[in-house]
Write a structure and sequence with these properties.
The chain is an alpha+beta fold. It is 25% helix and 25% strand. It is built from six helices and ten strands. The protein has a four-stranded mixed β-sheet. The model is unreliable at 1-65 and 144-148 (pLDDT under 50).
């Protein structure tokens, strides 16, 4: 029987559930998350902690749909010219690649990535490569005052896909492949919004990049953003 350590942030023991960074599909043991006390976020732990598969087997019940589980996955899909698939989110958050929650309906980040791509674009994922990840302070639209008021633990992948693009109109409008120049222009619009230079109505009519995605696009090498600009965007989350 596995004995799980106390969460080093909240110090709880009986109510703490541990999960590997990538659910049951990771072999990494260096990053773990206290997923019962979500706001504790990710941290580094000794490699003597139990492996991900053993941990996943004793994980608590999956959160109900439309309750924030504190974990998000994002997927970068490129066409043959290297342009990135994005759409304007119907909730008004901005232009973004496919993304979604993880443990509300899925067993791992990779399973969620495959499902979200199919749900939102009709495409089938044929491969996934990890690009970036970490804790982000983006608030969740699912539940005010829910279990994760302060953000999400993200994992972002590059995906290769097959099939025909069939957009979920409840998730996106204006779906298109955007070049690096177009992503840069959309990022400039996000900065303009952060600095109060465009109105909420103007943003809804022609959004820039969803703020939480600016860092991921930057870390994927798709846009260039200065430290000062990134700091302003992160402060707006």
């Amino acid at each position: 029987m596995t004995t799980f350590p106390a969460c080093p942030t909240c110090r709880r023991i009986d109510d703490v559930v541990w999960r590997g960074r990538d659910g049951d599909e990771t072999t990494s043991t260096d990053r773990w998350n206290c997923v019962r006390t979500y706001a504790c976020g990710p941290f580094t732990t000794p490699t003597t902690y139990p492996d991900a598969k053993e941990t996943h087997a004793v994980t608590a019940e999956t959160p109900a749909p439309w309750t924030c589980d504190g974990h998000s996955v994002g997927i970068l899909i490129a066409d043959e010219d290297g342009r990135i698939l994005i759409g304007d989110r119907t909730d008004g958050a901005g232009a973004a690649p496919p993304a979604g929650h993880v443990y509300d309906e899925h067993t791992s980040y990779r399973a969620a990535a495959r499902a979200e791509v199919t749900e939102e674009t009709g495409l089938t994922v044929t491969s996934l490569t990890e690009v970036a990840g970490g804790w982000r302070a983006n608030r969740c639209r699912r539940q005010d005052g829910g279990p994760v008021p302060s953000g999400h633990q993200w994992m972002v992948y590059r995906a290769t896909v097959a099939g025909r693009l069939t957009v979920d109109d409840e998730s996106f409008t204006n779906v298109r492949y955007a070049s690096r120049d177009e992503l840069a222009a959309l990022t400039d619009r996000t900065l303009a919004r952060v600095h109060g230079e465009i109105t909420p109505d103007d943003w809804r009519r022609a959004p820039g990049i969803e703020p939480v995605w600016v860092q991921w696009l930057s870390r994927a090498g798709l846009i260039a953003v200065s430290f000062t600009e990134m700091e302003a965007i992160e402060d707006s989350l």
